[in-house]
Structures are given as structure tokens and as C-alpha cells.
User: Fold these one by one.
Assistant:
Number 1:
Amino acid sequence: MSIQIKSRQEGDVTIVDVAGRITLGEGASTLRETIRGLVAKGQKKILLNLGEVSYIDSSGIGELVSAFTTVTNNGGTLKLLGLTKRVKDLLQITKLYTVFDIYDSEKSALGSFT
Amino acid sequence: MTEAAKSMNQEPEQEVVSVDTLLDSTLESVDLAEQMTMEAARQAGLSEDEQHEISMAVRETVVNAVVHGNRYSAHKKVHFRISTAPGRLTITVGDQGNGFDLSAVPDPLAEENLLHQSGRGLLLIRAFADDFSMRRRAEGGTEVRLVKQRKKHN
């Protein structure tokens, strides 16, 4: 029902594996704290893996946008990996699909960070 | 008359009220309303995508009622109602807030608003419900009505 977040390091890229629901309340706030924590530690290259995310509501979308602007404003880059069809549809409806840099494979996502 | 013939000739099915309840103004109520909608949509024979779409529209509507309408007040309730007919769901969500002006909601698709953190709820409600309407309740507050219909190809 709720959210699980784990971070792992691949070279200088931090991959954040998110599973479950990013919704108003616990899901959205846990994601926010994770991203803020990484930024505070000076992480500049963050890959958000949403492959196991079952559900995102408008607050969750807001949290993705907020993660993107937080990382960018701190001189970093945040990219998205492994969107399910439903999450893709949501980003298209909200016109955010072109705002984010989105990848299907972890390898190509990692290779895209410079 | 066979069942198939009946369904071809009949008047629109009478709606049955499957849920009629007062919810507290909490985030738990949001999850509960979403779950009740999912179950009602499944029973009404909507497809999996349609179940997901209407439960998300309901989730966003109840979030608006709890957060913006009733402002989490312990003294205010959300009137939540689901009527079902085969292949169709009608949901009403009533709050006890001060109401709001739809035209005053900024367009979340405008270039300058794209990176705003909030303001996408109504967009998703309209995208995922087949019909959306809103009225001021006589007793005060706002009532939103959503309809979701099974598509023919299902």
C-alpha cells in the first residue's frame, strides 16, 4: 500500500529505486525527504527509478516536479527511469513528459549522465 | 425474453446506491473512498483501466474536499455516495467548505505553471471521468458529481 525507497550508487550516479504508491501523505513526503537528503549530501546526479511504482496521484506528480526543480536548482541533474504505462500517461496528460529526461533502460540512463 | 434481448431493448438500468456515507476530513478517508470506488467499478463491470481511472478521479475529488473544502476540520464531513448500474458508476462528493471558483484555478498546462508543485487535481479529474459537474449545495459547501461509463469494446 505505501512506499518503499532504496538508494544505490553506480559510479557518481545515485539510483533511487522507488516502489509502491507516491500519493498525498506518506508516499510524497518520504520521496521529498529522500531527495532533499541526497541534495544535502552533495549528490548531483540522481536517477529516479519508478519501475515498481504502482500508483501516482497529483500530489505525487507534484513531488516529482519538486524533486526535479530541487536537484536542478542545486546544480544537479535528475532523470527518470522505467515508467509504467500509467505513469507515462499521467506525465503526458500533465505535459510533463517533455520536461523530464526519461529512460527505459538503466544502462542507457547511466550513460547519459555527463 | 433472453438476457441479451432484454439488455438491448430496455430503458437505462435503474441505478442502485451502493455507498452512501459521511467520511471524516482525513487522508484515510481519501484512501477509503478510492478503495470503495475501485470495488464498485469492478462490480459494475468496468475494465481494469477504467477502474483505475475513476478511482483516481475520485481520489483527487476527495482530496479537494478534505484539504481545500473542509480543511481537515474534525467538525466537517465529506458526503460520499456511489450509485451503480451495469457498466456505469456515478459518484458524488459533497464537502462543507466555502466553495471555489473553477475559473479562478490556474491552468496547470500553461508554460509558466508547468513546474508548479500543485494544481493538477482538476485536470486529472476531468481527464479520467467521463462527466464532471459541480454545484453549490443548498446546505452549504460544494458537491462534485462524476460519471464513468464502460466503453463498448469491453
Note: The radius of gyration of chain A is 13 Å.
Number 2:
Amino acid sequence: MTDETLTVHNNTHTPLYRSFKIQMRVIGALLMREVLTRYGRHNIGFMWLFVEPMLFTLGVTALWSFAKMHHGSSMPIVAFAITGYSSVLLWRNMPSRCVGAVEPNLALMYHRNVKVIDVFAARILLEAAGATTSFIVLSTFFISIGWMRGPQDIIKILLGWFMTAWFGASLALLMGCLSERTEVVEKLWHPTSYLLFPLSGAAFMVDWLPPTFQKVVLCLPMVHGVEILREGYFGSQVHSHYNFTYMASVCLGLTVLALSQERYISKRVTPE
Amino acid sequence: MIQITDLVKRYHTRHGEVTVLDQVNFTVNPGEKIGIIGRNGSGKSTLIRLISGAEQPTSGTIRREMGVSWPLAFGGAFQGTLTGLDNLRFICRIYGATTEEKIPFVQEFSELGRYLKEPVKTYSSGMRSRLAFAISMAVEFDCFLIDEIIAVGDSRFHEKCRVELFEKRKDRAMIIVSHDPNFIKANCDKAAVLTAGRLHNFDRVEEALAYYQEHSATV
């Protein structure tokens, strides 16, 4: 044995720093593998990662423009659609990719350093990267051709985007783990995510709703994320309704629950 | 050294809890070759997976103080949709080894030539086992876990594997699982018999084989 890293990481008591290095290495390897298995090396290859969400967003933007989804408000429809639909892709794609993610990766878990959490982390990172790139490319494009005005408050946009990503990631980990415990989760996730879309704040501003309905809709954490994002984008042009503490508490709760479920299933996973 | 203490593994099944391994104890010293014999379904592969760390024990401890391989077997641990080369890259990345310097060896040993750039799912079973063995030898370990690995392949390839593993790496420790007494006799210094979830350790291979013969005759 000449390779010193191998000698050490096989020890039962691996120091924290080394564990972290190993985990980064494994997640990196899983990312590369995921990109290759999903997109291959044909045509535009890994660029599908953000071209696919871009096509979705463009299609939705076109449809909403024709349907005048902004309900006669003075809001510019392109910016409204792009901020809204990009956030939906951000929180929805991560759970969709994590549901049932363990089973096709079981063969890889023959390698001690490949853990359940790494498989989820790789998929979450990839989806977040895809949605984020799509959002940046599309808004830069539309701003440069003058169909969208520049953002008002970049920091607030980043905050809204980060909160939505945190919500998506914790939900993804939870759904991914629960789907490993019962198949019902996989069956229910698709209708649930579909039905949540119209309520998610992507296609409306909370301010446009009657007050009683506002209260109901604001129970959904992702509504707060897109409201923060739009306040950042449009500034005083819109009147946003959100509660940062509420959204952060929900995300924190989901994260803790998800990590506890991850612990449960990782003790029981059996490689193929 | 690998030290296994009071290892228990139970699985939940439809007909209740099944104890596959019950209070298993043994030690592997550097360079030692230990055979584990048991009939089909006796829990040999489960034991190998626990030692490798791919699965977690229900109770008991496994101390690994040397670099332990993944359970080497033909098949398993590969991605069919990836090419042979991408599988090699993945495994090298995971274990922190450099891929580029391993490619010539894998190419030469597996005799796959340009097929190394085709998806593994298009390989024949013989090609798969050649790739699997070549990749297994690309990363170095102090202790190799071998799960019936020599059972497949034609006699020429069989011989190549034997040289690579038992001659070039004769200084390494190995845990070899098999139901073939002759294979254990030819390659191991010590042996243990796994029956009904219990592991019976013997210092001499002959004693273990005698116990195994006797036991499998009566059951």
C-alpha cells in the first residue's frame, strides 16, 4: 500500500477534514457520472442541463404572454414569467430527481465511501445548477435585448433564490428518503407537485388575491421565496407579502426531518 | 489489521426478523489470507459486504486499520450505461487515484481494445468480467475482499487473474469467500466455516475443510 489517502480513509476513525475531502471527491465523481448518464457526449451534451429548463421557461413565458396571465397589472409579462417559472423549476426539479434516486445507484454503494447522502447531494447540486444557469442566461438575454429591465436589488434576488433553493433541497432530501421507505411517496409526489404549481406564487402576486386567500397561500413556503425574489427584481413596482422567519423555520424543520430520515435509510440500505 | 467483534446482522423479511450473522468474531493480520467457506445462502456475501463497509451491521464492530477493497466479484459495482473507460474513471475518482496512468494496464489486461469506449451494457459476460477484474486491480489495497471471483472466465484468463492477484500481490491480506474447498486450500493460510450464522475459526485450513465436510454432510 503506497497510497497514503487510502490507508487513512479506510480507518474507522477518519478525521473530520479527511472525511470532508473524501466526501467532496465522491460527490464530484457522482456529478460527473450523473451528467454522463443523463446527457452523454452526443450533440450539446451537458448543456442540456440548463437548455432543458430554459426551453420550459421560454415556452411558459410565451404562453403567459398570450394569455395575459398578469391580469391587467402594469407588470412586464416577460420578467414576471421568468422570475416565476424559474423559481418553480428550482424547487420542483430537485425533489423530482431525488424521488427513487437510491435504487438505480445501489450498485455504486458497494464502494464504502459512496453514501446515500452523496447520491442525493449530487442530484440536488446538479438540478440547482441547471435551474440557476437557466435563470441567469435567460434574464441576461432578455435584459440585453430590452424585453426586461435590469434588476433593482441583486442581494434580495440572491436571498429569494437561495431560500427557494434551500426549500427545494430539503424537500428533495426528505422526499428522496421517504420514497425509499414506501413507494406511495413516488406515486403521490407527481400529482402533488403538479397541483402545487398554480398555488406556488409563480403565476400571481400575493397582493392580487383577496385577503382570506392570501392567508391560505402564505402557508406555502415557496410563495415567500418568489415574493422575495420579485421584490428584489421589481423593487417598489410591486407590493410583496412574505415572512422571512416563517420560510426559514419551515426550511430548517424540513432539513432536520430530512437528515433524520437519511440516517434511518442509510443504515438499512443493501447494495445490489 | 481488521478486527471484527461480536458482529450481528439481521434483516427484516415478510416472515419476521432473520439473523444472518450471529456473534461473528475474527481478526485479519497484514498479509494473511483467510478463506471463509459456507454453503450457498450461509451469509458469506453478507459478511464480505459488512467488512467492506458497503452495509452497516445491526450490532458489533469492525475496525479497519488497513486499506480494504470493495467486494471484488464479477458484475456489481458498475454502471451499464457508462463506457468501460468511464467506469474506470469513476472508480479512480472515488478512491482518489489518477485514471490516466491506469488506462494502459486496464486496456492491456482486459483485452477489450476499442470496446473500452463502448457502454458496458453492450459487453458479453466474458468481457464484463475481464473489465471488472482489470478495474479491481487498478486501485491498490492492503486487503482484498474476494467473493467467488475466480469462478468465471476461460482458463487462460483465469491464469492471468491468478498471477495478478496471488503472485504479484502475495504480500497483501485477502479474505476469500467460496464454497469450493479446493480453491480455499490452494490460496489460504487460515480458514473459517460459516454455518447457521456462526463463524467457526480454524488455524489450519485442513481442520476447517474437515469440519465443513462433516457439517455439510449432516445437514
Note: The helical segments of chain B are 44-52, 84-94, 103-110, 125-136, 155-167, 181-187, 205-218.
Number 3:
Amino acid sequence: MISVSKLLCGLDAEGDGLRYDAAEESSKAQIRERKQRRPVVVWNCTKQCNLYCDHCYAAAETEPAPGELSTAEGKRFLDDLAEFGAPVVLFSGGEPLARSDLVELVAHASDAGLRPVLSTNGTLLTEERARELRDAGLQYAGVSVDGLRERNDEFRGQEGAFDRALAGIEASQTAGLKTGLRYTITRHNADDLEAIVDLLADRGVDRFCFYHLDYGGRGADIQDVDLSPEERREAVKRVCEMTRDYHDRGHEIETLLVGNYADAAYLVEYARRELGDEQAERVLGYLRRNGGDPTGERVADVDYQGNVHLTQFWQGYALGNVRDRPFGEIWTDESNPLLRALRERESHLQGRCSACEYRDVCRGASRLRAIAASDDPFAPDPQCYLTDAERGLAEESVGAGTTGTAD
Amino acid sequence: MTAPDGGPGASDGPEFERVDEPRGDRTREWELFVRESTDESLRHAGSVSAPTAEVAREQATTLFGFAAETLWLCPADETVRLVSDGVALGDRAGEDEASGGSDGRVEQ
């Protein structure tokens, strides 16, 4: 997760301690010390969802799936996370509001010392449930909207989903919850990007997370609507320009990019062109502390059956199951050669990544997309959009790399 | 030690319980074992989801081919998993509670 608003506009936000080890320089409450070295844990607490979205990495279904962790198991699992020192648990799904015990689990997480946050499609988020979640200790609700009305509803498989999501956002805000947008950029909705931010910013939303499509779950089936590297570069540039424009006008929105750490390198290059060398070096310093793609390190996923995954998008492989062994034991067991290699991946990265100047701040970006494209966990991410010059590759050493033009 | 389904067990030693919740629902899960060199033991290295043994083999080779000298794949639903008393999550969560949460959810 890369904060464009922090890196380009200096916006101070609560998560910066986790992202940039910047707790000391922040005026906001920060997650500190040991917790900064533990992963944020996404818990897909149910597979059930009331929508059927084209890009769902969890391949959620409208009916309940067998083997969901029970309420008691869920609480014990949350205790394990707290004992391990995980800073944040993100309740996701499926649609987490489909679980009738969600408030109870959020309260348990909060009491255990975790920071509970929610990822939801918003359509089931009434004012009453938002108040209950706030009182239980929920710190943040991220609501997924993927385009303006028509595009969103088509993508999400249900007419009226857009209006109900907006109602959910309003309910969350009314309850006093910090509320943000989650937006997965594809060819279907890239054109709506600024319009959706304008619409929601007018309604008081001030946090916008833009996700790149990863190739997990049903996301693997729609690679044909993923942006090309050139289109991705343009979309990221637009996020940068939009963020700066809002801040220039005194509206300090928080914007984040998720799921493609080529963005980190792009932001350094963008800062060098638009803001000068000094700011570019500052951005690079922050990103080095951030540490690049977090798969298997700073982000973990536990599915509804307790399987532990390297990231929420990578559901086809599990390290183990929390029903057999506590999460922390699984996560720290580096006898697993894949886990070990991912944590020292700079020495394993191949092709154009191996000589890239930005490999320390990108770390090869998505390993899942690399596998989808090359059947190799250490091959280049096919969605790297950096030019050869930006990667610092001399012309004669360039192989199959992208040679697109800079902006 | 108990042998809940006639599997390995004896009257001495620690108590073991079977952990038999499903590991996959629509797609079969395959337990994965890896040996990195001949002088090492075979180690459990997680599981892959795959509809057939052939697809599981392809996935395991993709993920561990760079390191593994030996790969074993066992269907998770044919694997008897036993743990000592007090180790399994449901056991640690409390037997009464784990059999049904406040909303009546029941372990599968």
C-alpha cells in the first residue's frame, strides 16, 4: 500500500507508522514498535456474499460455505493474532456483514488490542449496524465501489448496488466511522476514476484506495480487462495529478495505491520530474523503509476455513491452517522454502527485475501475476510499466523489457 | 493417545484428537511435502488447491521446483490429521463454545 498523498503532498495519516516507519514524525496516533514488524492480517471471515463481483479474489458465493470458523474459534484466533503482535485485522469476505456475529468478533478484536478495520461492499451497512460496529471498536470501513452507477452495478452483478453502497458510506459516516473508498482499476472503470472521487469527496469521504487487479480467484478469469502497462501508467499518473490538484485546492484527501509496487518506482520518477531531486530522494527514502511488495511479510491472509495465505489474492496455496497451529507459528516457520525465498526475494528475482534499480522498493511486485504469466514465482510481473531507462537498464542489456515512453 | 477412527494410537503418551474440518470446499486441497536435499527429512510445506492430482503436481512444481528435490502430494480429505489435546484451535477455544458460537455456528 503506497500513500500517494503522503509521498507527494506530505499528508500525515494514521497508517504511516506501518507503511514508512514514520511514527516519530507524525502527529497522528500510530501503530508502533513490535507491531510494525508483524503483518496486517486480512481475515476472510466468511465466503458468503450478497453480490457476485467479476473480480472477486475470494471467489465468494451467495450461499454459505462449509467449514467457516465458529464464533468461539474466531475469538481464539483473534487472541492468537493479538498475542503474536499483529497490529491490524481487516475483516473481509465474502461480505463480512453476512456474518451475524461480526459485531461480537470486532469487539473481541478491539478488546484484545488489535485494530479492527472492515472491507465491505457497503450494501448491508445500515446506520444501526454502523453504530454497533463503531461501539464495538471498529476503526475504519473501506467500501468497495468500482465505477459510476451503471458500470459498478454491471461489475458487481446487481442493479442498485451502487446506490446501496453510497447509502452504506453515508451510514458509516453518520455513525462517525472513518470511511474510505476501495476501487479496483480495470478497463471497465478507469474512465470513472476522477468522477467517483469527486462524487465521494463532495460527500465527505477523504480516503481513496486504488487497487490494481491481481490474478487470484475470479480476478484470474478477467485478465483481458486488466489495463495494459501503458494504460496502467496513465491511470497512476492521473491518481498523482488528481491528488496534487485536491491538495493544491486545500482539500487534503488521502490516496493510496495497492497491488503493484512498480508504482513505488513510478512515484520516485514522477517526483523527480514534477517536484525536483530533493523531493524524489525523500520519496525514495520513505519507500525503502516501506520495503516493497508485502507478500509473505507485512500482509497475511486467513480464509474462512482458517487456511493461511501469503496475501489475500493468493488463495490457491496455503502455508498451513490456524485450526492445527497458531497463526504466529505458521507465519514464522521458515522451514518452508517458498516462504523463506519470498522473504529474501531480491536474490531470487529473475529477468529484468534482477538488474532493476528499483528492485529494493518494488521487490518484483506481484508474484501471483508472475506465476500467471510465467509459471515462475520469481519471474517479472507482467504488469511492470517502468521504462528501461527508469529501471536503469542499459540498452544493450535489455531483453524482453517494456520500452514504453516516459510521460 | 486415542485413535478416533481406528488409526494409529496407543494407550500411553499424550491424548490426540482428530482435526477433520474441510480444507477446501469446491476445489480439492492437497497437502504438500518437500525435501530440499537427500540428507533432510520430508517436511510439510502447506497445501495447494487443485481439482486433480495432475494440476496439483503442476502447481507444486511451479511453487517449489526451485528448491525441492522431492515433492509429495496427499489429498487433504484422505489425510488423517491428529493433534494433542489443547493444541487445535477448537480445543483451545473451549469445547462447549466451539460446538456453536453465539449465533449457532457449528464446526463442520
Note: Chain A touches chain B through 46 residues (CB under 8 Å).
